[in-house]
Amino acid sequence: MHQFISMMFSLLVITGLQVSVESARIRSERSIDRHYRSELAVPNGGRWGSWGPREMCPTGTYTAGFSLKVEDPIQGDDTALNGIRLHCVDPSKGSSNSYHSYASVQSDVGSWGRWTDIKWCPSGFLTAFQLRVEKSQGDGDDTAANNIMLKCSGGPLLQGDGTRWGDWGDWSNTCEGKAICGIKTQIEEPQGRGDDTALNDVRMFCCD
Fold first, then answer.
1. Which of 5, 53, 54, 173 is the most exposed place for a label (fewest CB within 10 A)?
2. What is the DSSP letter of 155?
């Protein structure tokens, strides 16, 4: 019996070490303190919640794609857009059609929804964004941010697979530097029996 308990303890320790190593590997893909040249913002973000940490692509990489965490309409307390994930690539690795290796970064994320497929720039990198936001509904159901559109340096616009409430606001400035390389998000925590909105606003950062 003691031998069995000892074996189980050893397995737990080994498993814990493997999880720690995996977590460390994931953290090492980010470069939180990477220097950035400019910060991008839009004027129509929601007003609820608090800002999460700034998360940066690994040094030498830039964003060429993104995916969203979206709650589909539920005919109840909708939260719409819950998270934004940026996908960072090395410019020396070829066109986006051949990206097999990339790092992903995200700031705080809401509790609801599922992640959409990645949208990639056909060429170039992400350089500006536009946010679709529903204004305050008073006593109605607020959703705040619903969708995002990003501009590729090669010209095309990429619209996310978000939800349809609200209006598109003005574009952010275009990056000073090469491309977007980081993100932070404003997220409202779950409100219990209150009205949930999840993601309200986003800031992005540009690197040389």
1. 5
2. S
**3-state DSSP call for residue 171?**
coil
Instruction: Tell me how crowded residue 35 is: count the other CB atoms within 10 A of its CB.
Output: 11
Tell me, yes or no, if the pTM score tops 0.70.
yes
Name every residue whose Cβ is closer than 8 Å to that of residue 158 and which is 6 or more positions away in sequence.
Answer: 66, 119, 120, 121, 126, 149, 150, 151, 152
Q: What is the pLDDT of residues 3-29, one digit of tens each?
A: 444 444 444 434 443 333 232 233 335
171, with CB counted inside 10 A (0-12, 13-18, 19+), is middle
3-state secondary structure of 14: helix
Report the alpha-carbon distance of residue 81 to residue 159 in Å, rounded.
Answer: 13
Instruction: Give the sign of the dihedral formed by CA 39, CA 40, CA 43, CA 48.
Output: negative
**The pairing of beta strand 167-168 with beta strand 157-159:** unpaired
